[in-house]
Design brief:
Blueprint (H helix, E strand, L loop, with lengths): L5 H12 L5 H8 L3 H13 L19 E9 L4 H9 L4 E6 L6 E7 L2 H12 L4 E8 L10 H10 L1
Antiparallel strand pairs: 1-3, 1-4, 2-3
């Protein structure tokens, strides 16, 4: 990814404040031309600055109020296949490969405790998964955020 300058950081901050802002509104807010904003947005997108543009939907609104993280230990050589099999499990909402004792951190959403138990059993049944440890989410205490990082990057630019 290219280095971000103060214009890029200002544009990202404006988008963080109002993710639905139009290019025209961003240009007006930042005192820039629409073409400049459009070009910067295109470059930021090509450079991978933006994650998914899909709307974030709360799992409880779909009838899945129980969230948990499953630590997965597995045979290292099987990671690609195991990842594919995990992606086929609808309850898996996210997964990260980790360093250290845990190989994968898998986030799941379930209807109730029994459903969580069954989901964990499905993960454990995948060939190559050696052990799982499940942690129930009690509540989110710090939601996903990048504003502090953007402020740090801006201060360092």
């Amino acid at each position: 990814m290219a280095t971000l300058d103060h214009v890029d950081l200002g544009l990202l901050a404006a988008l963080a404040d109002d993710p639905r802002a139009t290019v025209v509104a961003l240009a007006e807010r930042l005192s820039m031309s629409r073409n400049t904003v459009q070009a910067r947005m295109g470059r930021l997108e090509r450079d991978g600055a933006f994650l998914s543009f899909e709307r974030s939907i709360a799992a409880p609104s779909l009838g899945f109020p129980i969230e948990a993280f499953i630590n997965v230990q597995l045979r290292q050589v099987d990671i690609p296949r195991i990842t594919e099999e995990l992606a086929a499990v609808p309850e898996v909402t996210q997964a990260h490969g980790l360093s250290g004792q845990v190989d994968l951190l898998v986030r799941v959403a379930c209807r109730d405790a029994r459903h969580l138990f069954d989901t964990d059993a499905r993960v454990l049944a995948i060939d190559g998964v050696e052990r799982t440890e499940t942690h129930l989410v009690m509540r989110e205490v710090i939601p996903y955020r990048l504003r502090p990082l953007m402020e740090l990057a801006k201060a360092e630019a």
